[in-house]
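seq/struct pair 1
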Amino acid sequence: MLLKKSRLPIRDIFIYGFLPSFVKVAVYRLKGYSIGKGVSIGLGSVICGNNVRIGAYTNIGFLTIIRGVNITIGSHVQIGSTTILDTPHMEIGDGSKINEQVFVGGLQFPDSKFVLGRNCQIMQMSFINPAVSIVIGDDTGIGGDCLLFCHTSWLSQFEGYPVEFKPIEIGNSVSIAWRVFILPGTKIGDGSVIGANSLVSRTIPPRSLAVGFPARVVSTFPDFPQEVTEEQKVTILKGIISEMESYLRGSGLEWISREGYYEIGLQRKNPWGFKKTKWRLQVGYDKLSAQGNPTSVEGVDVFLSLWTIPKEYRSILNTKKVSWIDIENKEQPFLLNDLGEEVALFLRRYGVRLYRVKDY
């Protein structure tokens, strides 16, 4: 054969795969890879590419293979163990997560491309074949056991059987449930939901609910999604805070309601006994003014706001070293403290995935 490509990069696995993470990162930097600080590459995992860029605080699990020509992985990305990402051109946005045993590869061309936006998630055991190109927008979730194929070809086209090579486009804030099959040429609009066990083979308009085999649109805007009033949003957040209290209490943390804030305590064991650490969470249900001075956040560790936190307000919070979370804009600072990370993770249960911003 003129072109031969091994299914696994055995040579790289033996040379680099079992090096400690910090050594592996150093070796890859010497090879010319651009790797940010705080990057962790698991035991047995390798990265093979010509042009490789990996953002800060990205974590790659063990026995994972990432191979391509041009590889760009953003910051705070998580790639699970025993996952294979093998396509010539690959882009993964900041804050995205690819779970364990996901496969991206298969029949491809030199210009095949896989693009995953920011704050996305692909659940375990999904198979993705970017024979042409697959582009997935920001804040989109792909369920487990899903199949995304850019080609249909097995029987001979000379005998009248269809052969297709077409791209797949999935918009922003799309939810694709488990065991969905997406065929070549599919386009799914922003804000749409695809029900479990569906087969999608055509264009789905934005903000629609599609289910079935093949999938058909059963509801669309303004009936889906439903409009939520400001009063309802306040009620929803209060319910989330109540459930967070139950969750943290059940996990062994202390939760005390104070005037204007909540106090969360955790006992950690050390060689000299137990050390208790306390954090303060303040929740803002009222809209904020750009001219306001958040003097009430003195001693607060995390400020959670239902509404937009103006730029000037954010600057003051940063000066006071208060981690902030802006639900309306789905934003947080690039780094949060421990309590901030826990709150952000809990909000994901309710579909709120936060973008990390560096501008403030």
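seq/struct pair 2
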Amino acid sequence: MLTDHVTGRKYTVMIREVNTYHYQIPLHRTLTDATHGEMTHFEVVMVKITSEEGPVGIGYTYTIGAGGTAIRSLIDDVIKPLILYEDAERIEHLWEKMWWRMHYIGRGGLVSFAISAVDIALWDLRGKMAEQPLWKLLGGSSRKVKPYAGGIDLYFPLEDLIAQTEKNLEEGFKAVKMKVGRENLYEDIERVEAVRNKIGVDIDLMVDANMRWKVDTGIKAARALREYDVFWLEEPTIPDDYEGHMRIEREGGIAVAAGENLHTIYEFKHMIEKGGISFPEPDVANCGGITGWMRVARFAYAHNRVVTTHGVHELHLHLLAAVPNSSYLELHGFGLERFMKDPPPMEEGYMLVPDTPGHGVQFEWEVLEEYNVQAASHQL
């Protein structure tokens, strides 16, 4: 329920329309990691929620090339009729309606992606109606966040990897991440050594194995990586092996980050309570949106953990700025900056949080339209 500041009238923000859009966006170059192989494009599924009062909330999720049609179908066929003409301010109520309506077919997976896009749109709408940026609406802990450059570069030739690192340093990053998980561990170690020698001792270095190893190999790799002062080892093994993550962190002697493939608060609960990760990594685009992300961040706080992020940094910027237990913000090659008006700037190694109401992301819709899957299919 909102109050008109002039008349004092109270009114409900009713959802009048829910529209979805599906885009396939090519990457500037082929990107590679240890599990997903070569990636040439990514998908974005967007949701526009229009209120009776006029403001529009924008939410979105993404895939690494497959599943976008299914996500859009869940939103159009299941979620849209569920939330139309509901009170947009009752976000927890709407989240639970979506969750339990699709619980039997999901409990995570594509369901969490679909809920995420809608939940983000609802929070964007709430911020606009309240004339508050999300980072303040959610807590307002800090005006700036420290980012790292996340490379998706497992099979880059070494000279390209070093050139990428040089570019990141020139742009002002104080931390960088590279991929590991090649066929032979010694190749990973050689590449990590080369990057560490390039960046020196004052820049934080993260490595990401993308679930590549069994636990014993992960422990062996962690022990070898300690020599290079690695800030964290990300996703060393499959996300479901909570015990394995604990062993790799404890026996390998290196901090572990994980969570981009965990889609519910319950999965994070198991992982954190097992003691398997120092850096929980919820992704707002697949863990139930802003509602789901904040639940993970608060649970992590209660267990003396800081949270980091995966992808969609323009949204995660607000979330890390909102909470007191924030770590690094990931920036990587799946960015949407080329389609945005005034993307958030970086100054002296920090990302500055915008004060625009809601999440502040404004798209160049006419530029995006070239990659609209529905429009392309209509032309066939």
